[in-house]
UniProtKB/TrEMBL annotation:
Statement: the UniProt record of this protein carries the keyword Membrane: yes
Spans traversing the lipid bilayer: 148-170
The entry's keywords: Meiosis, Membrane, Transmembrane, Transmembrane helix
InterPro entries (UniProt xref): Spo22/ZIP4, Spo22/ZIP4/TEX11
GO BP, one annotated term: regulation of synaptonemal complex assembly
Keyword Transmembrane helix set for record: yes
Record protein name field: Meiosis protein SPO22/ZIP4 like-domain-containing protein
Pfam families the record matches: SPO22
Length: 1013
């Protein structure tokens, strides 16, 4: 007891009354003008309560009612009523004032109570006491009271003291009420109501004090007496149930301590008991016309369900009870008003949590989730809740798929935002990627894609990109794991029409990825059918086509795809490099050749051409590969030789155009050697390809010349030999080709004759230049001279075709001036002129009358034959048959002119023939004479006839020489002796005038026609 109370007891009732009255006079005006925030008000009210309590104690000791009691009772009623006005405020200071007013009012009414009150008075004072105690208890357990009323610390301290007092005086009046007899039952309901209020107040106060045992005891007392509960009004029962529910909820909240996820099972069970009591109080009440009661009942059931759920680990049956409670609540939902409210959505979520914990089947879970989705008001957070919940159900794979598809269907049906559809679609793709049954996952995806397509839903670019990225990611995952079919299916999903916002580039990429996956599993037909759905103008598509063709062994198709790839807009040289490597690894030389060609084309004909060394290296690779292919059996010579020539020309062009030729020295060296060796080999392996071989020699020669021109060190003499050989071989090959062409064709354009002539002439000039510059050693000169002589033969042959007789004569004379002329050269000259029917021999001049020349037309053949004969006689080794023919031709030409000098020259050649006959006249080849008999006969008849002609012309000396020759020739023909006798006698007798004295009869007859001199 406080010192104030001790001091009060020492005073008389009148003094107490007077002090109470003074305080009331001071306090009541403050209550009327709204100055209740003044802390002196609560302090004065507490003093009034304390004085009134002291007054009551003194009055109870005297057991007499004082006249002052009525006044105190009236003032108590007044203060109590004033608390109702102040109660309208919700601030903490108003509640403190209300508590002080009620406490003071109660103490004053208590002081004015009769010593032996009747039932109504007791009911009234107990009810007042209950409400006062409840108010004080409630305020005492408010943790924020101290901080809000820091300025009124004394008041708060007094309040806590009054709480204990309030509880104690309740029991006194409750016991007095219990002892009152009421045989008629008039006050039965009032007594039940007051008792229930009293017990519930004590229960609540004990709970707030932390005395859980006393609170439970009071709860049992107030709920176990069914007879008393029946007498209570609906409002009182609602109030009681609310208090019981509040205590149960507070126990549920305390089940989680320090953010621990594991509930405290014992507290959960205790909470259930409190909520069961609350439900029992209102279970049988009619809620149809009382919305507040219906809401209370639903609140109790919700709390019960939570309690059952938390305690289900100890008692699994509580899960069924929780589900039952939730179903009962859900059954009370008005579909037209409450169905989609957040509160009732929570009920459905609670039910889902319950059935998840009791491990219900997929069907039950699906129904619960569908109920949530059906009543879902779309928002980003709500959709997130659904998706997060689905993640917790990953073990129910098909269930999650069905729910996601259902939610997607709902989003389309209810016109949710496009963001919702996109999120659901991405979630579905992500979930299906984890399905261990691949075919089912792909089927589920296609079903959802079809639904989107049916409603003409088109994804925007960003979400479509996200979906495609996921599809590629999962496809790549299968691809790298060697699951080719699965990878192809994932890639194919990206080709669906719902992704059209990304354009054809995306679908083409998906098709290509799918085709590559089928290619890996060697399903070439499927891969080919897929890649054909891509535009063929894309380089990447052509590359995939190339791969499919390569693995099928279809080189022609692979080559076509390479050509298409190079000319595509999005071409990248890396593709060609990859194709090149693949062709090399598979040893597909023909394909590799075409790939290298395409790569070279990108270097030479595209922008950003690579450097010269790269181009030359590539040309070397191509030429090396062509040479290898040429060496294989059944090689396609037409194609390969053309390719070889083409790339040799490219090599020459690159080398000639290079600004720094020194960097290509090694390449040029390798190239000329390769070209030269290839041409040498071709001479023995290739038939009827002289022109192409000549072109290869030409390329080798040009590369050799570049090599010598830009060499950084002294060039070996052998290089010049190769230049001579290449130039000579090139010209020779063209001559051989031309000869073959002449044998096959009657008419040849003059242009070709000129080209051949120029080629031979250029070759002659090159070799002559090497000779003049003395680039070769003396040992190599015979080879060079031999090449020159053969080229002169070719020159004569070409000039004959062009009727360029001046060149023919100049060439023959040049050959004759050579130190190393050969018989074969002159033989060739003679043969060429002899066979040329256009060679003039009948008195026409070589040039037109406007040109001056001393050459006669027959001098062309004559010069050739003469040089030939001189060479034959000089070397002493020749063909007697050819010698006889050539001599005959010379003699015919000389005798045709009919001049003394020509006849003199002719008889000189006849003498040469006689000398040959004397040396080789008996030589035979088998049975035939090497010097033909017909030529001998011609010599004999020509000498004899020419002698006669000279004799007729009175050129006796010439005639004598011709007759002498004829006589000698007779020795080398059959019946020579008889012929000699006809020509003249063995002895010749020369008369003074030069006429023979002994001649044959024929000769005498001939001489008789001419007078002697």
């Amino acid at each position: 007891m406080s010192p104030v109370e001790k001091k009060s007891r020492a005073r008389s009732p009148q003094e107490l009354y007077d002090e109470i009255r003074e305080l009331l006079i001071k306090t009541k005006p403050k209550l009327k003008d709204g100055t209740t925030k003044d802390e002196t008000v609560t302090g004065d009210l507490h003093k009034i309560a304390s004085l009134a309590q002291t007054f009551t104690e003194q009055r109870l000791k005297s057991s007499k009612k004082s006249q002052l009691s009525d006044f105190l009772d009236q003032e108590g009623v007044s203060l109590w009523n004033a608390s109702g006005v102040v109660r309208l405020g919700s601030a903490l200071d108003s509640r403190v004032v209300v508590a002080a007013l009620r406490l003071a009012g109660f103490r004053l009414m208590e002081a004015g109570l009769e010593p032996k009150p009747d039932t109504e008075a007791l009911l009234h004072i107990l009810q007042i006491a209950s409400k006062t105690g409840a108010t004080l208890s409630e305020l005492g357990h408010n943790d924020t009271a101290s901080s809000v009323l820091a300025c009124a610390a004394k008041v708060i301290f007094s309040l806590f003291m009054l709480i204990v007092v309030g509880i104690n005086f309740l029991s006194k009046y409750e016991e007095a009420l219990r002892n009152i007899d009421d045989p008629s039952g008039t006050n039965q309901q009032a007594r039940a109501c007051v008792t229930a209020v009293y017990l519930s107040t004590r229960m609540e106060a004990a709970w707030r004090e932390g005395n859980e045992g006393l609170a439970a005891f009071m709860a049992d007392k107030v709920t176990e007496n069914d007879g008393r509960l029946v007498l209570l009004s609906n409002h009182d029962r609602e109030t009681l149930a609310t208090k019981l529910l509040d205590i149960g909820k507070s126990l549920l909240r305390s089940c989680y301590q320090d953010s621990k996820l594991a509930p405290e099972e014992n507290k959960a069970n205790e909470a259930i008991r409190w909520m069961q009591k609350a439900f029992a109080v209102i279970e049988h009440l009619d809620c149809a016309s009382n919305a507040e009661l219906a809401e209370l009942k639903r609140s109790v059931l919700r709390s019960l369900a939570r309690g059952y759920f938390l305690s289900s680990s100890q008692d699994p049956e509580n899960l069924i009870r929780a589900e039952t409670a939730l179903e009962e609540v859900i059954a009370t939902i008005n579909p037209s008003v409450d169905n989609v409210s957040s509160e009732y959505q929570q009920l459905r979520w609670m039910k889902l949590a319950v059935i998840k914990r009791r491990k219900a089947g997929d069907t039950v879970l699906l129904q619960a989730l569908q109920a949530i989705i059906d009543n879902l008001t779309y928002s980003e957070s709500n959709l997130t809740d659904v998706l997060q919940e689905l993640r917790t159900l990953s073990q129910y794979h098909q269930l999650v798929t069905s729910v996601t598809q259902y939610c997607l269907h709902r989003a389309l049906q209810c016109s949710w935002s496009t963001d919702a559809v996109e999120r659901l679609l991405i979630s579905l793709i992500f979930h299906c990627s984890k399905d261990d049954k691949h075919d089912r996952a792909i089927q589920d995806l296609h079903a959802s894609f079809k639904e989107l397509s049916d409603v003409e839903f088109e994804l925007l670019k960003a979400p479509a990109t996200a979906c495609i990225t996921l599809l590629w990611q999962y496809g790549d995952r299968h691809y790298h794991a060697g699951r080719w079919k699965e990878a192809a299916d994932w890639f194919s999903c990206g080709t669906h029409s719902i992704f059209t916002s990304l354009g054809p580039v995306s679908s083409s990429r998906c098709f290509r990825k799918a085709a590559l996956a089928h290619l890996k599993r060697k399903d070439y037909a499927h891969a080919g059918s897929i890649i054909r759905r891509c535009p063929d103008t894309e380089a990447t598509t052509q590359y995939v086509i190339f791969l499919i063709a390569v693995y099928q062994g279809l080189e022609d198709e692979a080559m076509i795809s390479i050509r298409n790839m190079v000319h595509a807009v999005d071409f990248d040289r890396k593709m060609i490099l990859l194709a090149c490597r693949l062709a090399h690894d598979l040893d597909m030389k023909n394909l590799l050749l075409n790939v290298l060609k395409a790569l070279l084309e990108t270097l030479n004909f595209r922008e950003n051409v690579g450097n010269v060394t790269e181009a030359m290296t590539l040309v070397r690779c191509i030429i090396r590969l062509i040479v290898k292919l040429l060496g294989e059996p059944a090689a396609d010579l037409d194609r390969l030789v053309a390719a070889l020539l083409h790339h040799l020309k490219i090599a020459v062009t690159i080398a000639e155009s290079c600004e720094q030729p020194a960097i290509l020295a090694r390449d040029v060296s390798w190239l000329w050697r390769t070209a030269y060796n290839c041409a040498i080999q071709a001479c023995s392996d290739w038939e009827d390809r002289e022109d192409q071989i000549s072109e290869i020699f030409d390329a080798a020669r040009r590369l050799l010349e570049l090599y010598t021109l830009h060499a950084t060190v002294d060039v070996d003499q052998a290089v010049y030999i190769y230049i001579v050989n290449a130039s000579f071989a090139s010209a020779s090959g063209r001559v051989m080709s031309f000869r073959r062409l002449r044998s096959q064709t009657e008419s040849i354009e003059s242009e070709k004759y000129h080209d051949l002539f120029n080629e031979i002439n250029q070759s002659l000039q090159r070799i002559s230049k090497v000779l003049r510059e003395e680039k070769l050693s003396q040992e190599d000169l015979p080879r060079l001279e031999s090449s020159l002589q053969i080229l002169r033969v070719f020159m004569v042959e070409a000039a004959c075709h062009l009727s360029d007789w001046t060149t023919v004569l100049a060439t023959i004379e040049e050959a004759s001036r050579s130190d190393r002329d050969s018989l074969e050269t002159y033989e060739a000259f003679a043969d060429a002129l002899w066979e040329d029917k256009n060679c003039p021999i009948h008195g026409r001049y070589l040039f037109s009358t406007s040109q001056s020349s001393s050459y006669q037309p027959n001098l062309v053949l004559f010069t050739a034959l003469e040089a030939t004969l001189h060479a034959c006689l000089a070397r002493g080794h020749f063909s007697l048959e050819k010698f006889s023919r050539w001599l005959r031709a010379i003699c015919i030409i000389l005798l045709t002119r009919a001049t003394g000098a020509d006849r003199s020259k002719a008889i000189g050649y006849v003498d040469q023939a006689i000398a040959v006959l004397e040396e080789h006249g008996d030589a035979r080849d088998g049975g035939d004479l090497l010097y033909p008999l017909d030529e001998r006969q011609w010599l004999l008849s020509t000498a004899y006839n020419t002698g006669l002609e000279c004799l007729h012309a009175s050129m006796v000396d010439e005639a004598k020489r011709w007759f002498e020759c004829s006589t000698i020739i007779c020795r080398f023909v059959p019946d020579g002796r008889q012929r000699a006798e006809k020509v003249g006698k063995i002895r010749w007798k020369i008369r003074p005038h030069g006429i023979p004295q002994q001649i044959s009869t024929t000769y005498s007859d001939l001489l008789a026609r001419y007078p002697t001199r």
